[in-house]
């Protein structure tokens, strides 16, 4: 038996990117031999084993044959006679089909090394189109490698466009897994841009795809740059937060600007309600994490908080702080500020994304949080009067702070 390092580990090492995990292909062996050598079997549809010491994945060389729909409709065959070249041919992209033996020699039967030099993501064979999951994977690789100027070969993008009719066969779990990985990359906006280019965005995220449509048949028409501004803000939020909930909520920022008359839902002209319907539809269909749904809804309600903070009265500020549950989840302040800043920077409102509004909001929260329920109880308040007194004291301290910063308005901070 021989084993070869394959896939992302080889690709990333050649690109001087830190290797996250190592995968190995084993040629000339059998399940029985692997078990006898102490490897731990974990595969169900095809034999995959964990190394007994470092727990790295070792898969027997295999071929595959399409027999059903979706990314699970494959029949896998393993045999000691299957060659490394046959195994590598079943992979998606040439840059992922480079192998390295135990002596460090590279095996590259499909031109992956040349495509690495060209910075090109190219499919290996026509078998690429048999697995619709590869549409999302290629989009994710484009986002992952965008900082190195990688691009998708035109013929590969064409095949991706031809495959979108099968995207409905993908499980929501796999859709979210690829999307999550893309959101955590340096350039998550590229993932959604590629899906838009090949027509997959409308199949997977129709709510986000709708941001790119420009209909003049209704009044007011959708701004044709709404989608591009959303992706631009997503590229900015990467520098401000690595929280996936914050990044995804940034995508939902402009839902409130969509014209509900263009949708099938017959609802009242209420932007917040309309946006919630869009969010609930997307999150229930894709079974996305509830944490992200909550933050997305909060942000749609308060996407202009930094612009408005100097003009809000203490009562509204208290309602805002209560609504975002900041007393139990203080991190919400930084999340709200980060998304606001991303979109304000994107619009070119640099004076808003800077010092004054952000510092005021943080100071208001800090001062208001010094008012404790315990102190109110000690002062003799009971029952519902505790909550009323808590609100009143917070309002007074906020009102005093706002009065102290009126000078900001006169000095062109707003």
Topology (SSEs and partners):
Elements: E1 2-6, H1 8-14, E2 23-27, H2 31-36, E3 40-41, E4 48-50, E5 57-60, E6 62-66, E7 74-78, H3 84-89, E8 99-100, E9 106-107, H4 112-118, E10 120-121, H5 133-144, E11 151-152, H6 154-162, H7 172-183, H8 188-198, H9 201-204, H10 206-209, H11 226-237, H12 244-251, H13 271-286, H14 290-301, H15 305-308, H16 314-323, H17 331-346, H18 350-353, H19 355-368, H20 373-378, H21 384-404, H22 407-410
Parallel strand pairs: 2-5, 10-11
Antiparallel strand pairs: 1-2, 3-4, 4-5, 6-7, 8-9
Helix pairs in contact: 5-7, 5-8, 8-11, 11-12, 11-17, 12-14, 12-17, 13-14, 16-21, 19-21
Family: Belongs to the tRNA nucleotidyltransferase/poly(A) polymerase family. Bacterial CCA-adding enzyme type 2 subfamily.
EC number: 2.7.7.72
Pfam family, one: PolyA_pol
């Amino acid at each position: 038996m021989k084993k070869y390092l394959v896939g992302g580990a080889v690709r990333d090492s050649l690109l001087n990117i830190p290797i996250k995990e190592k995968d190995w292909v084993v040629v000339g062996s059998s399940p029985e031999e692997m078990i006898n050598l102490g490897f731990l079997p974990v595969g169900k549809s095809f034999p995959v084993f964990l190394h007994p010491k470092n727990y790295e994945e070792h898969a027997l060389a295999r071929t595959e044959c399409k027999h059903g729909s979706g990314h699970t409709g494959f029949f896998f065959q393993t045999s000691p006679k299957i060659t490394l070249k046959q195994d590598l041919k079943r992979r998606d992209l040439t840059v992922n089909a480079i192998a390295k033996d135990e002596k460090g020699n590279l095996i590259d039967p499909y031109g992956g090394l040349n495509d690495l030099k060209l910075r090109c993501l190219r499919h290996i064979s026509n078998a690429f189109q048999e697995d619709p999951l590869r549409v999302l994977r290629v989009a994710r690789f484009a986002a992952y490698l965008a900082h190195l100027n990688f691009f998708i070969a035109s013929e590969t993008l064409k095949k991706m466009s031809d495959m979108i009719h099968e995207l409905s066969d993908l499980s929501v779990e796999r859709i979210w897994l690829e999307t999550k990985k893309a959101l955590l990359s340096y350039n998550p906006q590229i993932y959604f841009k590629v899906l838009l280019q090949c027509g997959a965005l409308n199949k997977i995220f129709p709510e986000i795809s709708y941001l790119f449509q420009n209909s003049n048949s209704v009044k007011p028409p959708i701004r044709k740059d709404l989608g591009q501004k959303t992706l631009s803000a997503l590229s900015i939020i990467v520098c401000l937060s690595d929280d996936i909930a914050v990044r995804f909520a940034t995508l939902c920022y402009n839902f409130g600007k969509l014209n509900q008359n263009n949708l099938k839902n017959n609802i009242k002209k209420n932007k917040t309600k309309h946006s919630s319907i869009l969010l609930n539809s997307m999150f229930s269909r894709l079974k996305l994490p509830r944490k992200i749904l909550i933050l997305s809804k909060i942000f749609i309600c308060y996407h202009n908080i930094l612009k408005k903070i100097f003009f809000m009265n203490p009562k509204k500020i208290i309602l805002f702080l209560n609504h975002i549950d900041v007393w139990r989840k203080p991190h919400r302040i930084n999340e709200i500020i980060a998304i606001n800043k991303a979109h304000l920077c994107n619009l070119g409102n640099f004076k808003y994304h800077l010092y004054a509004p952000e510092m005021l909001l943080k100071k208001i929260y800090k001062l208001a949080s010094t008012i404790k329920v315990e102190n109110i109880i000690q002062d003799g308040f009971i029952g519902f009067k505790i909550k009323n007194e808590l609100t009143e004291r917070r309002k007074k301290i906020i009102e005093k702070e706002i009065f102290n910063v009126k000078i900001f308005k006169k000095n062109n901070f707003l």
